[in-house]
Amino acid sequence: MYSFHELVKSFADKFNQKHFPAEPKTLYEPGEYVLQMGGKRLRPVICLMANELFGELTPDAWHVANAIELFHNFTLVHDDIMDAASLRRGMETVHHKYGTNTALLVGDVMAFRCYDHLNKINTSYLHRTLSIFNTMARQVCEGQQLDMDFEKQSAVSLNDYIHMISLKTSVLIAASLEMGAIIGGASDGNCRHIYEFGRNLGIAFQVQDDYLDAFGDPDKFGKETGGDIRQNKKTFLMLHALEVATAAQKAELELLQAGNTPDKVEKVLSVFKACNVDEWAKKLKEKYIQTSLQHLESIAVLSARKKPLLELTDYLVQREN
Amino acid sequence: MYSFHELVKSFADKFNQKHFPAEPKTLYEPGEYVLQMGGKRLRPVICLMANELFGELTPDAWHVANAIELFHNFTLVHDDIMDAASLRRGMETVHHKYGTNTALLVGDVMAFRCYDHLNKINTSYLHRTLSIFNTMARQVCEGQQLDMDFEKQSAVSLNDYIHMISLKTSVLIAASLEMGAIIGGASDGNCRHIYEFGRNLGIAFQVQDDYLDAFGDPDKFGKETGGDIRQNKKTFLMLHALEVATAAQKAELELLQAGNTPDKVEKVLSVFKACNVDEWAKKLKEKYIQTSLQHLESIAVLSARKKPLLELTDYLVQREN
Predict the structure, then answer these.
(1) N or C: which end of chain B has fewer CB within 10 A?
(2) pTM here?
(3) Domain spans in chain B, listed from the N-terminal domain onward
(4) Is B187-321 a domain of CATH 1.10.600.10?
């Protein structure tokens, strides 16, 4: 069996090559550009890990892993257009560098390319794998639409936010695991558990991300904190704060959001603390981690085989206890 | 066997229903909107016709036909964004009505929905059908990119233009036929012929479209002529004219393109006629029709079964002899 970090390296080595034909250069040079930006390639690796949970790594898992990484990059290219983002991973975004129309087509062609890789897998798994992939892709689009909708709404419930996060980010993790498992010959029950392991882990990761953006140590977090607050982003913390705050605290938050005073971050954080949002977020994250781990526990394979997925969990989320 | 017009009606009856879940409404209402715009639904129908060429119409051909019509609508939604078009079939385009970001996602979700339909077909045809569909989708994206590239270039060769048209519009017709044929159990040779029948017919149709926009009878053509000339569009006619014109004629065309005088259309047409562009275009169309019909002729089935495809040919292109 391979460790999580070994698989990260193996996948990067295999994936870092040309993915498109040479011509038309105006389409495929931008396509190669975005794929060369790198990134952690986590999602394809967890597909490989789920595959190995049930036996030897199979060639088909690598095909699905390629499709997953291409799909992820397709979402980045189109999301960057929608967010009008000019930078990603410190580099110019595709639409910023090559124009919006080309970026749109680059995303499209990348989405179809996923199915070239999926089409290489053994016929016996093809229908089920396609079904999971298609459903995931549809849900990710739905999540992105809900995210855009929420930005325009004044009030969003925490439940609706969790639903959106689940669609926008968690189902890709969950589906990556499930497809790897299916190709590994996993039973329906095991497939369901590994899917839920991933879905809950994804939500825990997002809670942590929101928490760290507010309360994290900038040195450890790797970026300046308070960005979400400055941009009035709807986060787990803000939505919960608005749900539990007193009328006076709510009014203060709304006033702070209406402006951009130099002490905005500091003052919002002090309302968050007064509402115990920090402690609540830690507990919420812990709840999702525990649910996630229970599903991992329930998968009927030898515990030793689960070690890489536990390594992954520790890599993605810091556990409190 | 069904006639071409019977299949048009049957497909429209089956296709005109809801295609997406109810929620999120902000995503799927625009999705239903574009599908309800109608259109002739020609491409899925020719898939059904190709299927029936080899035997009884099969349920799988209907699944593929659905995928084809969804794919075609996906291209319309994304192309309208790229062309900044505000109207299609007399109705507001999706991005104009619902915003560019939503239109982008509507196109994406429609592209993935194609594969839900493809995934319903019998396993024995799945790999080959996916392979044709994926290749076609990639080529259509390439064609759209080349079309955008050409609009920015001063000189485009006729061969490059034919290559672009083949990718942008003909391969969808060709692939629709080939997928229908594969599901009908056609041999490799018959599949190749039906693909080439469609690809050449598609090019003939485009030559005719360019011809009618310049020389057509507005009453019969259904829209005002001269639009391509007024917009300086690169067409079969203009590219050929620029290739065969004398230095003086070429200078006149370039001068006319640089301005927008009231007599622009009339003057360009007179250069076209002086260069025999009209006769040349008729011959070019005829050449592609003949090639197309030779491929239809070469398909090894009873002639009687080819009647609907001949009806289709007559519907799409008016033959000179």
Answers:
(1) C
(2) 0.96
(3) 187-321
(4) yes
